[in-house]
Design goal:
It is a single chain. The chain has helices spanning 2-20, 28-35, 39-51, 78-94, 100-112, 116-130, 136-151, 223-227, 247-254, 282-289, 301-326; strands at residues 26-27, 56-59, 62-65, 153-160, 166-178, 185-191, 196-201, 205-214, 238-245, 263-266, 272-279, 295-299. It is an alpha+beta fold. The protein folds into four domains: 2-65, Arc Repressor Mutant, subunit A; 78-130; 136-227, SH3 type barrels (Roll); 238-319, 2-Layer Sandwich (Alpha-Beta Plaits). A hairpin with a 4-residue loop joins strand 6 (185-191) and strand 7 (196-201). Helix 2 packs across helix 3, helix 4 packs parallel to helix 6 and helix 5 runs antiparallel to helix 6. The longest helix has 26 residues, at 301-326. Residues 1-5 have low confidence and may be disordered.
Length: 327
């Protein structure tokens, strides 16, 4: 009896998962073949899902799930809850936007957790995000990109580049990513204008409109491979970066894994050298500058030169400030 109940429960979860991921729905005969049971069993399962509150729809003999009103159910043990709590804290620290969907998700999570201590802290994280200024334009853009990615629909965007230039693009969202070392979210997408993959900062998208045109994400596209060499989210030519850190910060450098490719060598003077292969120098440059005089760029020459020029500009700025104070 227990095996039968567990088998039905597993089948219901399988049907629920399958229908959610097939936007156009499936016929009963297709579900029957998918689950290896007869059609009468599938009809009973669909009724059971409906009675459980799953928003099952039927149209012209096809069954599906309303993705707008669907609520998933997840059971977590204490350690899994703590892992999720860490993710929530990172989200609260890393996002500088008031996203009502994030607030709603965290509030539901806090309400659904039995541990009062953890749920209270998650509710507080939701409140921190709720108090940030709400930009309606950002929310609309975020919703359009999310729906386009989930339903494989092209999205028309107005994008403002870092230098302020505004262009109109039609993109196919392949992946949404949160920046690792700064507040911000990005969409990795095929850009019709450039005919190639591009990375767009969501905060720079002024407007977004969901289109009816469908697209497919190539089977060989793996976002984790695509981003594996990135220091953040940018896809640029890979370079080898060599850095020498002073003894005063070496222990901080050695105790963290900054990049999957890093190789650390301890020096006789207590310092250390770090070698990494990353996509371009644009994103890692600010991280290097953050170590101030405790780091020296050994390679590549381009990064060393940029850091040198940055330091020279700082010296000039502070010299001008000192002169102004003396007056």
């Amino acid at each position: 009896m227990i095996d039968r109940v567990q088998s039905k429960a597993a089948r219901l979860r399988r049907i629920e998962h399958r229908l959610y991921n097939v936007p156009n729905g499936m016929r009963v005969i297709e579900l029957s073949e998918y689950c290896g049971v007869d059609r009468r069993t599938i009809y009973r399962d669909l009724m059971t899902l409906h009675d459980m509150g799953v928003p099952v729809w039927e149209h012209a003999g096809r069954y599906g799930i309303n993705r707008e009103t669907y609520l998933s159910t997840v059971r977590l043990n204490l350690n899994e809850t703590i892992a999720l709590f860490f993710a929530v804290r990172l989200l609260a620290h890393h996002s500088d936007e008031h996203n009502p969907h994030v607030v709603s998700a965290l509030s539901k999570l806090a309400t659904g957790l039995p541990d009062a201590t953890i749920s209270g802290h998650i509710a507080q994280a939701a409140e921190e995000i709720r108090t940030r200024p709400l930009r309606d334009g950002y929310v609309r853009v975020f919703e359009a990109l999310t729906r386009g990615w989930a339903d494989r629909k092209r999205v028309s965007i107005q994008y403002r580049s870092a230098d302020g230039k505004l262009t109109e693009r039609v993109i196919c969202p392949y992946f949404l990513e949160v920046a690792r070392r700064e507040p911000g979210a990005y969409v990795i997408a095929y850009d019709d204008l450039r005919g190639a993959l591009r990375t767009f900062k969501i905060e720079r998208i002024n407007d977004a409109e969901l289109l009816d045109n469908s697209y497919d994400i190539p089977a060989d596209f793996d976002p984790h491979v695509h981003l594996s060499s990135s220091w953040g989210v940018m896809d640029e030519p890979e370079v080898e970066v060599q850095l020498r850190f002073s003894a005063s910060v070496a222990h901080r450098v050695e105790e963290s894994r900054w990049h999957h490719s890093q190789q650390v060598r301890t020096l006789d003077d207590g310092g250390c050298e770090v070698v990494m292969r990353v996509n371009g120098i644009r994103e890692i440059r600010m991280w290097v500058l953050g170590w101030g005089s405790d780091v020296e760029v050994l390679a590549p020459d381009e990064l060393r030169q940029e850091v040198y020029e940055h330091v020279q500009r700082m010296l000039q700025r502070y010299a001008m400030t000192d002169q102004a104070y003396e007056k």
